[in-house]
Amino acid sequence: MSKVETKMSKQTKPTETKKKLNVLIVDDDAINRTLHARIINQIGGVSKTAGNGEEAVILHRDGNASFDLILMDKEMPERDGASATKKLREMKVTSMIIGVTTLADNEEERAAFMEAGLNHCLAKPLSKENLLPLINHLLDA
Amino acid sequence: MDALISQLQRQFRDYTISLYQQDFLDDQFTELKKLQDDGSPDFVAEVLSLFFEDCVKLISNMARALDQTTGAVDFSTVGASVHQLKGSSSSVGAKRVKALCVSFKDFCEAQNFEGCVRCLQQVDIEYKTLKTKLQDLFNLEKQIIQAGGIVPQVDIN
């Protein structure tokens, strides 16, 4: 194999999502909102934030919200992640929704969150390394 | 000048490593630093600022809830604040603070007043100690840059 062919055959890890994403970050913690927004920015997306599930639902109420992806925290005041996800699906929101759980959540709790209408679940802390391949995989599906 | 830069870079490396070895910081802090770049040069400082503000607010909430002079101790409020602090300390890599929150949560669930008070005192000391140490680290960074040097990437592993 020539040097050029060898170079081309090596898999280079993507650094951005396959398409530029418009993301809604739903989390009651300001640090997590800041971190997740920065990760989205680094993988080529743009983001908006909501402080809890109820705010996320209100954003979609007029039918004009158009997010490719929603990062939905599980535990939040006013309206939690499962309730917000269920409501958004009832409102015919078709965005990819990734649930953000903690390592303390057990299998049953994660399964119940998935049942609400998530595309996938990831445990905190999120990183470019765990989020980017998942997003690209979901975009392929 | 080169000798000064080298010395400062060495100090920075050694100090950074010591913070990890003494469990003040964990891998999540490394992840945080990866999110900082030329486009967001103050990102780490901004996030840490949010964290330390959180510490002040949550510790104050916990102290109020543990104040027996105002009536029965509100372990539910203490527990909720500990949960939040555990989350935010985990998000920034504040390893000792996070570990304390685990014990603190257990004392809350057991409604162990003395245990909770001890943990609250320790959390207060730990976050202030971390704040001082990170300030020293950022000061070293500043000195390196002011001397015309580059802040070294430190391989913790």
TrEMBL record, chain A:
Keywords, comma-separated and alphabetical: Phosphoprotein
InterPro entries, A to Z: CheY-like_superfamily (IPR011006), Sig_transdc_resp-reg_receiver (IPR001789), ST_Response_Regulator (IPR052048)
Residues of the Response regulatory domain: 22-139
SMART domains, per the entry: REC (SM00448)
PROSITE patterns xrefs: RESPONSE_REGULATORY
Keyword Phosphoprotein appears in the UniProt entry: yes
UniProt protein name: Two-component response regulator ARR22-like
Organism field: Camelina sativa (False flax)
Automatic annotation (TrEMBL), chain B:
Comment, domains: Histidine-containing phosphotransfer domain (HPt) contains an active histidine that mediates the phosphotransfer.
Residue positions where Phosphohistidine is found in the record: H83
Subcellular location: Cytoplasm, Cytosol; Nucleus
Designated name of the protein: Histidine-containing phosphotransfer protein
Gene3D superfamilies xrefs: HPT domain (1.20.120.160)
UniProt keywords, alphabetically: Cytokinin signaling pathway, Phosphoprotein, Two-component regulatory system
Phylogenetic lineage: Eukaryota, Viridiplantae, Streptophyta, Embryophyta, Tracheophyta
Domain HPt as annotated: residue spans: 40-148
Keyword Disulfide bond: no
Role, per record: Functions as a two-component phosphorelay mediators between cytokinin sensor histidine kinases and response regulators (B-type ARRs). Plays an important role in propagating cytokinin signal transduction.
